[in-house]
Amino acid sequence: MKITLHAFLLFSLASAAAAGPFEQLRGGLELPSAPEPSLKTEADIQYLQGDSRYWVTVAADDKYDRTALLSAGMDIVEIGKYTVSGFIAKVEMDQLAAKGFIVTSRQSIQEYAKKHLKDFPAADAAYHNYKETVELLQKLAADNPAETTLFSIGKTIEGRDIWCLRINPAEKGETPSARPAAFFMGNHHGREHLTNEVALGLASHLLARKNDPEIKKYLETLDIYIAPMTNPDGAEYDIQTGKYRWQRKNMRINPDKSIGVDLNRNYDSLWCQAGSSHYPNAETYCGPYAFSEPETQAVKSFVGARKNLKTLMSYHSYSSLLLYPWAGKDVPLENEKDRKVFEAMAKGMTAFTNYKPQQSSDLYVATGDTTDWAYSTAGIFSFTTELEGTTFYPGAAIIDKAVSKNVKAAVYLLSVTNDPYQLAK
Length: 425
What we know:
By secondary structure, the protein is of the alpha/beta class.
């Protein structure tokens, strides 16, 4: 993970104005591609020996089965026609049969790791860890002082700052603005490192192209915020040993000594009613109460202090989906005008990504979700992007492609942030 190389390559955009927006993202240089997963020895996975999670495949006919499995503590990662696969702790796995579910296959996380684990950071050196993310944000701010401010929206449970880059030449720091605002967030879940790269790529793109007529228009009229790492503790823990840990949650130590709360189930929107778990050991643990975590409290305070927020994007991975409310209710959005705006925005963004747009609860019901809370509380047109890939660790070769698609989609979102309701006319 070489910050100097990656930052330089990102900044090469500034001298590539004649080229397309992403052809020169790496300055013409090739980044290392991740190798194919190789079989690991027992010695390679010793650090996982205390991990009680299993990778399971469970029969599930529809979204109602999927919702019940989430509530039972399963972290659904892959959805088949009549099955789902994902991680679940052994205690919760042993209870699935009593709840009427059939586990069609299972393997311990140690067995799973032998087939799927890739070393970090050697194989994925292009990804930014927390230190490198902060350094790149600082460089972007230092190189663009007239347009940017870098500040922390709060601290994590382990004391790390949650950094946010503001792009607004008119108002600096945390000065209120009357400009329509957009908020982009990454890394709610620690293991979803590609989301951090997309957010950083967006910041780099906007500033490298700040004099292009289209981008200049947005910088002159909008208030843009980018927070690439919402859960830096989880992201750092995921790579701490030099190998991936599949860490989804934050780093709270629960009463049963398990680690973490699922931050994307901790918002105060029908908190912990469906699609999330009250079991602390579960991957979808909603926490002891809504906004129990300093990370979600920081987002709450940030959003609450900015009445000008019109749009929000929360990046996740993986599935190639673009999701919009409701996540926590199995009904269409009741406000027909707002529903038309969501659908039109989703169609506009997926024209660039070729992801599938849909209401979140069409997959399964999941309460305590970021986007539901932001929309229901503040009327913000909020989306979840599930980035492309077939694993949480897709290697370095995917970065350029994912950044290219999703930055174009983000620029489209900026183009309608001034007045989202124009899409309902």
